[in-house]
Specification:
The chain is of the alpha+beta class. It has one domain: Gcn5-related N-acetyltransferase (GNAT) (Aminopeptidase). Helices cover 26% and strands 35% of the residues. An eight-stranded mixed beta sheet has the order 1-2-3-4-5-6-8-7. It is globular and about 40 Å long.
């Protein structure tokens, strides 16, 4: 199975966006994006733990040698949990997160469920997830530690087209 998927970024003349498995060597770039993208970023140890799990899928989006974004997805029984999706703030609205998630869907397939939590105030992400076929299924009260914001829980049944 090929670990590379090529897609063209929305911006005309942009370098092709490649998707591959995230590697330990990517972690300095991942942490740089993580710290710029989130008020309460994951630690290096959290990423190392997720990369060490054989049942998970961790992907990197890159243009040439430049890391543009990444995702971390873990498997729990008959459910996948999309735990972290981040895009370099300078590369947002270029289709990076959508490309990562579509590649993930191609890898995990099957008839299971893919679930995630997203800040209720993150309208852009919610719109993107809806466009990929995710549906709201609940809330987690005071889920985010930095400000106590609720999370919207969304799911995608993998046997259904998105």
């Amino acid at each position: 199975m090929s670990e590379i998927a090529e897609s063209q970024a929305v911006d005309e003349g942009a370098s092709p966006l490649g998707i591959r498995r995230l590697a330990y060597a990517d972690l300095p770039g991942v942490l740089s994006i993580e710290r710029r993208a989130f008020g309460t970023p994951w630690s290096m140890a959290m990423f190392v733990l997720e990369l060490s799990k054989s049942s998970g899928v961790c992907l990197a989006a890159h243009a040439g040698d430049e890391l543009r974004g990444y995702l971390v997805c873990s498997r729990y029984a008959d459910m996948w949990h999309l735990m972290n999706v981040a895009v370099d703030p300078e590369c947002r609205r270029e289709g990076v997160a959508t490309a990562l998630i579509k590649h993930l869907l191609g890898e995990i397939g099957g008839t299971d469920t893919l679930m995630l939590e997203v800040r209720g105030s993150n309208e852009g992400a919610i719109e993107m997830y809806r466009g990929l076929g995710f549906e709201p299924v609940g809330h987690r009260r005071r889920y985010y530690q930095d400000n106590g914001e609720d999370a919207l829980v969304m799911e995608l049944e993998l046997g259904r087209p998105g």
